[in-house]
UniProtKB/TrEMBL annotation:
It is found in: Cell envelope. The keyword Metal-binding applies. It comes from Flavobacterium seoulense. This is Cytochrome C peroxidase. Residues 307-441, 460-600 form the Cytochrome c domain. It holds the Pfam family CCP_MauG. GO terms for cellular component: cell envelope. It comes from the Bacteria.
C-alpha cells in the first residue's frame, strides 16, 4: 500500500512538472509570436510609460541632466513606433513629434498650438529652468493623452504586408529628409542616434513578415545586414555637426531602399495607394521618375500628358493671352534663365516695377501652393491668376480662345491633347499651360547624378557643402531633400511657409513691408510669411528672396548665418527661423554655395 501511494505521488509530480514545462513553453511561444500589431501596441504602451516616468521626475524636481536623460529615453522609445504612427495616423502624429510651431488651418482662420516631444525639448534644452515646470508638466500630460488615443486606434486597424512595405519605404525617406537633418531634434541634436533606432525598427518589421522562401530570406538578410551596419555607423559617428550624411545616404539609406523594392518584388507584395506623390516602384527617392506630378493636380481630368505639355509649350509663347498682344508667359519666365527674368522684381505690363521677384517655374509642379504668398493651390489656378492680373498680362482667356479657334495648328494640338472635347474650353488652356510647367522637372543635376550613383565627381568642397546644408547650417529643415522646397516629406501633402525676417534692403535695418500670406489670411502667425521656394537651379535664378534683396548666394547665406531678421536686429515677433547664429566660417560659407550650385539642371550648366 505504501509503495502504491509513492508511485501515485511520483506520477502526480511528473504530470505537474510536464504541465509546468508546457505552460512555460506555451508562454514563450506566445511572446515570440507576437504579431506586428501586438508588438506595436506594446511599444506604444512602453513609450507612454517612459513619458509618465519623465513626468514623475519633473514633479519630484529632479536635476536637469536626469530630466533630459529621461526625455531622451522616451523619444528613443517613440522612434521604435514612429514608422506606424506617422504612416497610419499622420494627423495626430504632428502633435507627437511635430515642429514646435502653431498648426494653422487658414481656411477656418484657426490654429492649434503645438505640443509633443519638440515642445518639451524646447522647455528642457539646452537648459531646464525651474520656472518651466508648470508648462513642462502640462505638455507631458498632453503628449501622453495623444499616445493613449493613438493606442486605441491601433487596436482597431489591420496591418497588411503591403502596408509594412510602404511604411518601411516612407520611414527610410523620413530618416533621410527629417531625421538626420535635425528637423525633429532641433535643439538637443539627438537625431543621429535616433536615426539608428528608427532603422532598427524597419529591420524588425521585415523579419516579422515571415516570408520564408530562400530568395526572400536572402534578401531579408541583406536588408538586416545593411541596417545593422548603418546603425553601427550612427553609433560611432553620433556628433550632429560632423556626421557624414552624403556617405550615409549613398552607402546605407539608398541601398536599403533599393533592397526593400527587391524584397517587395520577390514576395509579390502589391503597392498601396497610401502615398501617391512618390512612385511606389522608385528604387530610391532620388530616381529620375520618383515623383508623380499628377499627385498635385486639382482633379482627374487634369492628368498630365505629353500632348498637353506640347500644347502648353505653344501657349506659353502665345501673345493673345495678354491684353495688348505684346506679352506672354515667357516674357517674365525666360526659359534660358531657368524660367525667371533675372530682375530684382518683376516688371508690370506698363513697364513699372512690381513688388515681388519672379520665381522659377522649374519644379513648381511639386508644390501644394503657388506664388510667394501661396494664394493659389495649383498650377491651373496660377496660370489663370497671371493671365487675368491687370499688372501682369491683363488678359481674357475667353477672348484668346476666339483667336485660337481660328488657327488650324492650334485646333489640331487641342484635339490631340483633349480628344474627347468638342470645343476649346478655358480649363483646357489652363491645364495645358500647367502641363507644360509639369514637364520642367529634369532631375539631372550634378547632385542627382551623384546620389543615383551615376557619377562620382562630387568634390570634397561640394560634399562638405551638402553635409552643412543637411546639418550644421540647418537649410534642409525648411528646404527638404530631395526637392529642396517646402513640400514636407515623406508624404509631401503640405507645402510650408516661413517667416525669416527678410529685410527691405541690404542695409538690413527694417523688415520688408510686404506682409506676404497675411494679405490672404489675417492671422498674426502669417505676417511677412512666404512660401519656402525650391533651391533647384538656385545658382542661375538670382536675385533672391521675395523682394530680390540679395544678389548672390553668399549674401543669402550670410543672412541666415546671422539668424535672419532677428539676428540683424530687426523686430520680428513671429519669426519661424531660429534667430541664433549658425557660426559658419568663411570656408563653410564657400562650401555651402558650392553645393547649391550642384543643384543646377544640365541644360543650365555652363
Amino acid at each position: 500500500m505504501k509503495l502504491h501511494t509513492n508511485n501515485w505521488s511520483k506520477n502526480i509530480f511528473l504530470l505537474l512538472s510536464f504541465a509546468f514545462v508546457i505552460l512555460i513553453v506555451g508562454c514563450e511561444k506566445k511572446y515570440t509570436d507576437l504579431t506586428i500589431q501586438q508588438e506595436l501596441i506594446s511599444d506604444i504602451q512602453k513609450t507612454y510609460q517612459n513619458v509618465s516616468e519623465l513626468e514623475k521626475l519633473v514633479e519630484e524636481n529632479k536635476g536637469e541632466k536626469t530630466i533630459q536623460e529621461a526625455f531622451n529615453t522616451a523619444r528613443i522609445k517613440y522612434k521604435k513606433v514612429e514608422w506606424a504612427i506617422e504612416y497610419f495616423t499622420p494627423n495626430p502624429a504632428r502633435f507627437i513629434n511635430g515642429p514646435a510651431l502653431d498648426e494653422l488651418e487658414v481656411a477656418e482662420n484657426t490654429f492649434f498650438p503645438p505640443n509633443g516631444f519638440q515642445v518639451i525639448e524646447e522647455l528642457i534644452y539646452p537648459n531646464y529652468p525651474i520656472e518651466n515646470k508648470t508648462d513642462l508638466i502640462r505638455e507631458i500630460k498632453k503628449l501622453n493623452a495623444n499616445l493613449k488615443q493613438i493606442e486605441l486606434h491601433f487596436e482597431a486597424i489591420t496591418i497588411s504586408n503591403a502596408h509594412i512595405i510602404d511604411a518601411s519605404k516612407m520611414e527610410i525617406n523620413r530618416i533621410l529628409a527629417l531625421g538626420i537633418t535635425g528637423f525633429d531634434s532641433p535643439i538637443a541634436f539627438k537625431s543621429i542616434p535616433e536615426a539608428a533606432v528608427s532603422l532598427e525598427s524597419v529591420k524588425v518589421l521585415i523579419s516579422k513578415m515571415k516570408l520564408n522562401s530562400p530568395e526572400s530570406a536572402q534578401c531579408e538578410k541583406e536588408i538586416a545586414d545593411l541596417i545593422s551596419q548603418a546603425a553601427v555607423f550612427c553609433q560611432k559617428n553620433n556628433d550632429f555637426k560632423t556626421f557624414d550624411r552624403a556617405f550615409f545616404i549613398i552607402n546605407y539609406l539608398n541601398p536599403i531602399s533599393k533592397k526593400l523594392v527587391v524584397f517587395q518584388k520577390i514576395n509579390k507584395i502589391e503597392n498601396t495607394n497610401k502615398n501617391s506623390v512618390v512612385n511606389p516602384n522608385a528604387t530610391t527617392i532620388f530616381d529620375k521618375e520618383a515623383f508623380n506630378v499628377n499627385a498635385f493636380i486639382p482633379s482627374e481630368e487634369y492628368q498630365y500628358s505629353k500632348d498637353k505639355a506640347e500644347l502648353g509649350k505653344q501657349l506659353f509663347y502665345e501673345n493673345s493671352l495678354s491684353d495688348n498682344n505684346n506679352r506672354n508667359c515667357s516674357s517674365c519666365h525666360n526659359p534660358e534663365k531657368a524660367f525667371t527674368d533675372g530682375l530684382k522684381t518683376n516688371q508690370s505690363l506698363s513697364g513699372g516695377n512690381l513688388s515681388r521677384n519672379t520665381p522659377t517655374l522649374t519644379y513648381a509642379s511639386l508644390q501644394n501652393a503657388q506664388f510667394w504668398d501661396m494664394r493659389q493651390l495649383d498650377l491651373e489656378k496660377q496660370s489663370l491668376d497671371v493671365i487675368q492680373n491687370k499688372d501682369e498680362m491683363h488678359g481674357n482667356v475667353a477672348n484668346a480662345i476666339e483667336v485660337l479657334n481660328k488657327d488650324a495648328a492650334y485646333q489640331k494640338l487641342f484635339k490631340k491633347a483633349f480628344p474627347k472635347a468638342k470645343k476649346i474650353e478655358e480649363w483646357q488652356v489652363q491645364n495645358a499651360l500647367a502641363s507644360y510647367i509639369r514637364s520642367l522637372n529634369a532631375f539631372d543635376s550634378k547632385f542627382d547624378n551623384y546620389m543615383r550613383g551615376e557619377s562620382n565627381d562630387f568634390t570634397d568642397e561640394e560634399k562638405l557643402g551638402f553635409n552643412l546644408f543637411a546639418g550644421k547650417a540647418k537649410c534642409a529643415t525648411c528646404h527638404f531633400i530631395p526637392l529642396f522646397n517646402g513640400t514636407v516629406p515623406p508624404g509631401f501633402q503640405k507645402t510650408e511657409q516661413e517667416v525669416i525676417g527678410t529685410p527691405a534692403d541690404k542695409n538690413g535695418k527694417k523688415i520688408s513691408p510686404d506682409l506676404g500670406r497675411y494679405m490672404q489670411y489675417e492671422m498674426p502667425q502669417l505676417k511677412n510669411a512666404f512660401k519656402t521656394p525650391s533651391l533647384r537651379n538656385v545658382a542661375v535664378t538670382a536675385p533672391y528672396m521675395h523682394n530680390g534683396v540679395f544678389s548672390t548666394l553668399e549674401e543669402v547665406i550670410d543672412f541666415y548665418n546671422k539668424g535672419g531678421g532677428v539676428g540683424l536686429g530687426i523686430p520680428v515677433d513671429n519669426q519661424t527661423l531660429p534667430s541664433d547664429e549658425l557660426e559658419l566660417n568663411p570656408k563653410e560659407i564657400k562650401a555651402l554655395a558650392a553645393f547649391m550650385k550642384t543643384l543646377t539642371d544640365k541644360k543650365y550648366q555652363e
